[in-house]
């Protein structure tokens, strides 16, 4: 698993012609294997922080390191999953799961099969995305995220739109995968119960510009690998 270090990270955007700070001097040390939940009011800068950690944007000030090495661009060891599964409608479930490998020019069929089995979508490999329920589409997106064995899984409210029963099933699934695989997770959620159920550490941000206002470590029996 990957450890992530943020040193005095500040970032902001031009909003309506005026520079608006979004993150201000954020310091975080995320150790390998932690399951982090990020909480905070809407618009405080949580997704911005995820984009910075992914390498989609570079902070205006400060440094972000992955195991001590500066993050300069997105990489296959850090996989993001957003609220909307964004499956390609003209690709089968299997082709969607294989997508990230397809881009790199080679497909490890055994790894694709394993990922599909892991999320319980065996038998649906040839289905089209529109034939899947919301939960199944999320499972397919999760399989796609896991197929390359990421060392860090970055989740932006991945289960926000699911009904509560499907969400509980997916939460259990996510927890089991994290226990088995031991990757690091950084998950943005608005759901405090979800954070309490899953996370080994809950970090809460203030409203914009985001600062860490609470950093809580949680130790539950099922958190131990
Ligand atoms: P959160 O995920 O906590 O809801 P975001 O990180 O999405 O918050 O956004 C934080 C603030 O930055 C918001 O005010 C948002 O409007 C602004 N913002 C985010 N991305 C951009 C962008 N690309 N350009 C301009 N403003 C942005
Ligand atoms: P590839 O893996 O070869 O890049 P694509 O994802 O681009 O495949 O497309 C997969 C198949 O779907 C191809 O046969 C392509 O012609 C078809 N296709 C691509 N884009 C669309 C689209 N917007 N609507 C319908 N079919 C599409």
From TrEMBL:
UniProt key word Transport: yes
GO MF term set: ATP binding; ATP hydrolysis activity
Keywords of the record: ATP-binding, Cell membrane, Hydrolase, Membrane, Nucleotide-binding, Translocase, Transport
Pfam families, A to Z: ABC_tran
Sequence ranges assigned to domain ABC transporter in this UniProt record: 4-225
Keyword presence, Translocase: yes
Gene3D superfamilies, sorted: P-loop containing nucleotide triphosphate hydrolases
Class of enzymatic activity (EC top level): hydrolase
Catalytic activity, EC: 3.6.3.-
Family: Belongs to the ABC transporter superfamily.
Protein name: Aliphatic sulfonates import ATP-binding protein SsuB
């Amino acid at each position: 698993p990957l450890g992530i270090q943020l040193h005095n990270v500040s970032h902001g955007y031009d909003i309506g012609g005026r520079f608006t700070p979004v993150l201000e001097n954020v310091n975080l040390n995320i150790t390998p294997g932690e399951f982090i939940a990020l909480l905070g009011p809407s618009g405080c800068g949580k997704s911005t922080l995820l984009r910075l950690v992914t390498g989609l944007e570079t902070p205006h000030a400060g440094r972000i390191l992955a195991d001590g090495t500066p993050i300069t661009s997105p990489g296959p060891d850090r996989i993001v999953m957003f609220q909307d599964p964004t499956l390609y409608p003209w690709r089968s479930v299997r082709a969607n799961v294989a997508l990230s490998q397809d881009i790199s020019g080679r497909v490890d069929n055994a790894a694709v099969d394993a990922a599909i089995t892991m999320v319980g979508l065996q038998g649906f490999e040839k289905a089209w995305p529109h034939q899947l329920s919301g939960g199944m589409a999320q499972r397919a997106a999760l399989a796609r995220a896991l197929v390359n064995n990421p060392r860090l899984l970055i989740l932006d409210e991945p289960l926000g739109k699911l009904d509560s029963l499907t969400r509980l099933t997916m939460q259990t699934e996510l927890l089991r995968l994290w226990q088995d695989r031991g990757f690091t997770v950084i998950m943005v959620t608005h759901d405090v119960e979800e954070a309490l159920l899953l996370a080994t550490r809950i970090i809460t941000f203030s409203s914009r510009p985001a600062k860490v206002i609470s950093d809580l470590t949680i130790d539950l029996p099922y958190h131990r690998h």
